[in-house]
Amino acid sequence: MSLRVVRPGFLSTVQDAGRWGYQSQGVPVGGAMDGGSLRLANLLVGNAETGAVIEMTLHGAELAAERDLLIAVTGGGARVYAGEAEIQCNRAIGIRQGTVLKFLPAGHGRFTYLAVAGGVDVAPVMNSRSTYLPSGFGGLGGRALRRGDLVAVADKWPTAAGKIWKTLRWDKAQVGMCPWTVPTLHAIRSRKVVRILEGPEWHWFTEASHSRIFSTAFLPTPDSNRMGYRLEGIAMERAHQGELISTAVSTGTMQCLPNGMLVVLMADSQTTGGYPRIAQVAAADLSICAQARTHEPVFFQPVSLPEAEQLFLERERWFQSLQQGLDTHLAGL
Amino acid sequence: MWPRIYALSERALTIEVGGEISEAVFERVMGVRRQILESPFPGLVEITTAYTTVTVYYDPLAVRRASQRSTLPASQIVGEYVRTILDSKPAAAGLVSSDLVVIPVCYDEEFAPDLAWVASFHNITAEAIVREHTAHTFTVFMVGFTPGFPYMGILPPALESPRHSAPRTSVPAGSVGLAGKQTGIYPFATPGGWQIIGRTPWPMFDVAQTRPARLKAGDRVRFQAISKIEFNGMIA
Fold first, then answer.
1. Which tens digit of pLDDT belongs to each residue from B84-114?
2. Cα(A221)–Cα(A292) distance, integer angstroms
3. How many CB atoms lie within 10 A of CB B208?
4. How far apart are CA B224 and CA A108, in angstroms?
5. Where are the beta strands (DSSP E) in A106-200?
6. Measured between CA atoms, how close is B167 to chain A, in angstroms?
7. Half-sphere exposure (CA, 13 Å, Cβ side) for A173?
8. What percent of chain B has pLDDT over 90?
9. Which of A3, A74, A49 is nearest to A287 (CA)?
10. Among B82, B99, B79, B100, CA closest to B37
11. Across-strand partners of A228?
12. Phi then psi for B87, rounded to 5 degrees?
């Protein structure tokens, strides 16, 4: 056992990169809502990118290290303290046994990711350690973390983690800082912009609706969750009537409900749906979208499919070069 | 007009093979799925099906790496693979298994809160509804809504029933329902708007199994009426 849950915060679950290959059984891919931050946190501590971490929603969590740990915090949804010292995100950090990590309110963002060298060690279900709350499986007992939970971390560290540990510079507060950090993937802008593709049923809606999607703000409502974000905003209008025969949907699919309101499907959404799919969040912007808070205005911008794919590939290359850069640097130590 | 191919996202392509819920369209769906399974393309991650569509999920990086024309968008490369596969000869019928599954259902009043209403809607007795429900072999058209939830049909007119206008906030796990031309089973206690006419003691989704969902698209299902005593004996 390596982490004891002193306080669970709003909603903390074990997540990894999700489970592919089970959608035909009605099991969504799931996994971290902000996939970019999951990958970054893992890379920083020398884990495989897709490994299991703790996803924390907003603030309030307190986790006690039961042994020395190499950790990294990403996402920005909370300010993080190791004991009395605030620790930076996007950097590998060493903490001593007994240190209590506290997740305090931040001004923006919804999710914070805590990666630990070796990875969170819970039994995989359908090849993944992600928690699927609606059906209660995966992660730690298929549920959110509770006070008193002991979260196991694998005993064996990846070789890279051992090397990173040796680079840590320890301060008086007994917090070890890795000399390098990585800039945040997405600049924190004053205005949240998410790029969207035209969905398969884009033309079921009026030109005026199309124009309104790109010229007005949409705000996630309080009943938004890991299955989807309901958006408050101008109602969409149908150009013609007709029902959609239930078909596949995926993370990022934007459905239009009968009342004209939009829903953005998220990590734990159903795998099939019958509401018209007016748009699709660009894969490269899923993380930005996921980090939108309740009542935070979100602005949509159009992107074409080839452009969206380019953005996706650029993002993949960014992670690849980051991994290569880290490998090269560690090899030289 | 069909097959119609369109992108669902940068990582998924949908092939639509018809415009209505029917056995004929469904056979085409299963046929296309078989063809793709027989000739999987590099970068294919998984395939799902629905009433009228087949969706292929792929890894754009792997698709472009494997293709000779790697400057084209992956969506275009996959679209071309799919068209080539569709134009080739149909796959051998035996490639994908389809099972006949007989599902025990207790139609006792305690488990069937909507049976009386459905019976009066059709102007027949509850027993007649049960006879109809257990007389036909239904096709599983797709699994969705929750893990393991099977959409089965096509219901004869004597069973076609409208959904509740306001769904129940929680329907017990194992509940068997009717909605429109479909019949289904709720594997978990979830909100539900279907007319509940019985309950099965069998788990419809069990993570301990190699294949957790009991049913898959293409399976054939018959319902078998059991007594409450038998139900209690079967429930784990």
1. 999 987 766 555 678 999 999 999 999 999 9
2. 10
3. 8
4. 55
5. 111-116, 150-151, 169-170, 175-181, 192-198
6. 15
7. 15
8. 91
9. A74
10. B82
11. A225, A265
12. -80, -15
Is there a contact between A25 and B212 if contact means CB atoms under 8 Å apart? yes
Pairwise CB contact (< 8 Å): A283 & B9: yes
Nearest to A313 among B57, B60, B212 (CB): B60
- pLDDT at res. A191: 85
End-to-end CA distance of chain A: 30
The helix (H) or strand (E) run that includes residue B131 is helix B126-135
The arrangement of strands across the sheet holding A85-87 comes to A85-87, A78-82, A100-105, A61-65, A3-8, A150-151
pLDDT at residue B65, rounded to an integer: 92
User: What residue ranges of chain A have pLDDT lower than 50?
Assistant: none
pLDDT value of residue B94 = 55
Interface test with A, best of B5, B9, B61 (most A CBs within 10 A): B9
- State the DSSP code for B12: E
- Element holding B38 (H helix, E strand): helix B23-38
SS3 percent helix, strand, coil of chain B, rounded to 5, is 30, 30, 40
Answer whether B8 sits within 8 Å of A249, measured CB to CB: yes
Nearest Cα to A1, choosing from A63, A83, A72? Answer: A63
Tokens (6 digits) for B157? 């007119």
Burial of A258 (0-12, 13-18, 19+ CB in 10 A): exposed
> pLDDT of B150-205, one tens digit each?
999 999 999 999 999 899 999 999 999 999 999 999 999 999 999 999 999 999 99
- B3 touching A (Cβ < 8 Å): no
Residues near B182 by beta carbon (within 8 Å), at least 6 away in sequence:
B141, B151, B152, B153, B154, B155
Nearest 5°: the CA angle A317, A281, A56 is 80
Q: Give residue for tokens 């469904």.
A: B26
As for the ipTM of the complex, it is: 0.95
Residue A277: list chain B partners with CB under 8 A. Answer: 8
Q: Distance between CA A170 and CA A175 in Å, rounded?
A: 5
Nearest partner of B179 among B104, B118, B105, B107, judged by Cα: B118
Q: What is the pTM of this model?
A: 0.96
Q: Which structure tokens are listed for A179? A: 């000399």
Phi-psi region of B230 (alpha: psi -120 to 50; beta: other; left: phi over 0): alpha
Nearest CA among B112, B30, B177, B12 for reference residue A23? B12
Measured in degrees and rounded to the nearest 5, phi and psi for residue B95 equal -65, -35
* Residue B2, both tokens: 């069909």
